[in-house]
Amino acid sequence: MRVEVFETYTDLSQRTADIVADLVRRRPDAVLGLPTGSTPEGFYRALTQEDVSFRQVRTFNLDEYVGLPQSHPQSYFSFMNSHLYSKVDLVPANCRIPNGMAVDPDAECRHYEDLIRQAGGLDVVVLGIGLNGHIGFNEPGSPWDARTRRVPLAENTRQANARFFGGSVDGVPREALTMGIGTILEAKQILLLASGEGKAEIIRRTLEGEPDISVPATALQRHPNVTVLLDKAAARVLQRTA
Ligand code: F6R
Q1: Which of 16, 105, 125, 157 could form a Cys-Cys staple with 150, CB 3.0–4.6 A?
Q2: Probe residue for ligand 1, chosen from 16, 44, 65, 134 as the CB with the greatest number of ligand atoms within 8 Å
Q3: In this structure, are residues 151 and 98 in contact, taking their beta carbons and an 8 Å threshold?
C-alpha cells in the first residue's frame, strides 16, 4: 500500500479530489465507489470545485442504513445529495445507493452487485475507516469474500455515529446494507482516507499489522493498487510512511 501524508486535512482532501478528477478526465464514464461520514466531506468539497464533467460518471455508494428512507436527514442518500449530487452534473439515474427501505434486502443486495457488474466494475473506491477498522460497514469478523449484504452494526460503530443522531445511540439504526470486502477488493484502485489523531492507532494496525479478519481494513493489504491518504495526525504512530 502506498502512503501519502499531508500537512492538513484540506491538503489530503484536495489530493483525493485531484486523483478522482484526473481519473474522470481520462475516463469520462468512470465508475466510482463512494463513502459518507465526516472524513470525505473535504474531498467532496474539493471535488465539486474541480473543472470536470460528471455527466457520464456512474457512482455506487458503499452503504446505507436499514430502515431510513432517502428523505431522512441522516440517510446516506441525503448526505450524498447535499455533498455531491446537488453540486455537480451527475445524472441522478447514474447515482446508486443501496435502498435501506427495500422490502427484500437480500434481493436488493443481489441487484446492487448486478448493477456494479453491469457497469463494468468499480474503477476506484474511496474509503473511510471506522475506529474498529471497518470499511464500508464490514465490521470486525466480516469474511473477506463477502458481497453486498445486510449486516448488523457493531455497538462501537453505533456509538461513534450517535453524533449524527442527536447524540443518542438509541436513534442510530442497528443494521445497514453494505458492499462486501470482496466487492471492494475487486475495484481497480482503492483510496483509503483517514484524518485526525483518533484514527492513528487503527491506521497503524491497518498498515503495519498482520492481515486479520478482526481488523477488516487489513484486507486491503491484499490489493495491488491501494493509496492511503493521511493527515499528519492520522499518521502519527506509523513506523514507516514510505
Ligand atoms: C461510510 C462508511 C464508513 C465510514 C467510517 C468512518 O460510508 O462506509 O466505513 O467511512 O465509519 O466514518 P467517519 O469518516 O465519519 O469517521
Answers
A1: 105
A2: 134
A3: no
Q: Max alpha carbon distance in the chain (Å)?
A: 48
Residues 6+ apart with CB under 8 A from 229: 4, 6, 12, 15, 16, 191, 192, 193, 194
Which DSSP category does 94 fall into? G
Residues with a known catalytic role: 63, 132, 134, 139
202: helix, coil or strand?
helix
pLDDT tens digit string along 133-158?
A: 999 999 999 999 999 999 999 999 99
List of residues 6+ apart from 161 with CB closer than 8 A: 153, 172
How far is the C-alpha of 184 from the C-alpha of 62, rounded, in Å? 9
b/e map 108-119, b = 16+ CB within 10 Å? bbebbbeebeeb
